[in-house]
Amino acid sequence: MSCHLKYLLVPVTVLFSNCSLIERSCENLECYMVLIEAEKTAIGSICFLAGPFTLLENALVLGLIAATASLRQRPSYLFIGSLALADVFASCFFTTSFLDFHLFRRSDGPTAYLFKLGGVTMAFTSSVGSLLLTALDRYLCIYQASSYKVLLTRRRALLSLLILWSTTIFISFLPLMGWRCHTDLTPPCSRLFPYINQGYLACWTSFILVLLALILGAYALILWKAHRHESSMTSLQGAAGTGHARMRMDIRLARTFGLILLILVGCWLPALSFMLADVSVILTHTQQRAFAFCSTLCLLNSAVNPLLYALRCRELRVALLQFLQRLCVIGRCKMSSEDLSPEPPSTEDNNFTGISEEEMPRTRTTRLHSISEKVSNQQLNVRK
Asked: Which residue ranges of the chain lie beneath pLDDT 70?
């Protein structure tokens, strides 16, 4: 009998019926395709809207950083570029694989499914890892302001990104390399992911929780340092200083980081909670459907990341405005050429064909001179 030890306390008749049901329903991954039609419509709408939007905005951020030489040289924007790249992968891998599995009910084999899941895992793990590097960058900028440029050089930033992506790729494709469920689907080890070993799921979930805890700790230390700095400045300048004229820096940072952490924890904690529960108990179909909705929150987090981390930076906003101005100039040139080309020249305008705008005043003056000469000639003829 190949049933899991969780069923040992269940009566024998119920045990055999459950085992046969699991083995029969999971042959074509049917036990994981639990969404009803209304839920498919809702999740499909979320993915079809959030997926392309996430792809476009993160690709825009990545293109701006790659096209601006001054931004490519700074470690902060290298980390933001890594975050944008990870979110681009997340929008592609998660949207396509999630819709293909839950909406179109494609039943892939173990190798194909684990490869797709490895791409999704790599994207989300790299996204959280890039968020950690961004938090550590801001921590060093606050705590080691005098030696920040010496501590975090461009070379060290690239090395840290290389280590991050190498580690995430290795961890994400461990199930494809052999760390998978030893019973396959009879019975399944996990009720959330086919062919996934519960030990691997527990390790990956714990790893993401550790990264989130480090991000929270880094921002907490930044807020504490900013609060101490503002308190010392207020005591030196007095109660009637600039603190009453404008909001204190620590309060502004608290609001910004509070929003960042609220979105980060709110998007990741529900899905991670279901993963931890899947390791210890057998999830019902209702809980599986709830996890499907919670997993889309991770995609929404990738959609919000450019607004929180990239477009709040002044240099990147300036690069975006310059890019938009160039597009406007190109658009105006195309509009002017389109306005001139479609209309066939009339008989009165034949003399203006092929003349540039700089030469237009000259042509007009010559026409005026010719007209005045004709008028003067006619007057002379009348006098004669």
From this structure: 1-25, 27, 229-251, 331, 333-384
d(CA 83, CA 81): 5
What are the contacts of 50-55 at 24+ separation with CB within 8 A? 50/91, 50/95, 50/296, 50/299, 50/300, 50/303, 51/91, 51/92, 51/94, 51/95, 51/299, 52/91, 53/303, 54/87, 54/88, 54/90, 54/91, 54/299, 54/302, 54/303, 55/88, 55/91, 55/92
Contact assessment for residue 80 and residue 57, using Cβ atoms and an 8 Å cutoff? no
Six token digits for residue 87: 């979110």
pLDDT tens profile 264-307: 889 999 999 999 998 888 888 888 889 989 999 999 999 999 88
Residue carrying the six token digits 């019902």: 284
Chain segment 96-137, per-residue pLDDT in tens: 988 888 888 777 788 888 999 999 999 999 999 999 999 999
The CA distance from 173 to 162, in Å, is 17
- CA atoms of 100 and 109, how far apart (whole Å): 14
Amino acid at 59: A
* β-bridge partners, 180: 196
For the whole model, what pTM was predicted? 0.75
pLDDT, residue 240, reads: 47
294, 274 in Cβ contact below 8 A? yes
- Domains of the chain in sequence order: 34-230+260-329 (1.20.1070.10)
Q: What's phi and psi for 185, nearest 5 deg?
A: -120, 15
Contacts of residue 251, Cβ cutoff 8 Å, sequence gap at least 6: none
